[in-house]
Amino acid sequence: MKTLKDLKNVGKATYNDLLLLGINTVSELAQQDPTILFHELERLTQIRQDPCVWDVFAAIIHEASTGKPTNWWDWTTRRKALQKNGQLNHVI
């Protein structure tokens, strides 16, 4: 059974972000949405997050739900499309 730290794109900062967000297991992560996590992290920290944080969230959620790791930057095009459509605005 994988832990959060076993996921390809989870380093120390992302791990700490997940704990702050109340996510402690891979199965909990698999049920998440990267946009909701991104906005909640900004709300909790009151810090404008780098948009690449969304990419990392998308990659780790994908791995948690499918078992298939991807590079976080593989998700950048999808994130940029959300930004262009106004679906990924900063909350602070």
Describe the 3D structure.
- With 92 residues, the chain is mainly alpha-helical.
- The protein is 54% helix and 0% strand.
- The chain has helices at 12-20, 26-30, 34-45, 52-66, 76-84.
- The radius of gyration is 12 Å and the shape is globular.
- The protein has one domain (4-84).
- It has 5 helices and no strands.
Which of globular, elongated, flat, extended, rod-shaped describes the shape? Answer: globular
Query: Mind summarizing the main beta sheet?
Result: none
Q: Based on the structure, what is the oligomeric state of the protein chains?
A: single chain
The number of distinct β-strands equals 0
Count of structural domains: 1
- Class computed from helices, strands and strand pairing: mainly alpha
Radius of gyration: 12 Å
Listing every helix as H and every strand as E from the N terminus to the C terminus, the arrangement reads: HHHHH
Low-confidence stretches: none
Distance from N terminus to C terminus (CA atoms, Å) equals: 37 Å
**Fraction of helical residues:** 40-55%
Q: Provide mean pLDDT, rounded.
A: 96
Beta percentage is under 5%
The helix tally amounts to 5
Search tags:
single chain, 92 residues, mainly alpha, 54% helix, 0% strand, globular
What's the quick description here?
It is built from 5 helices and no strands. The chain is mainly alpha-helical.
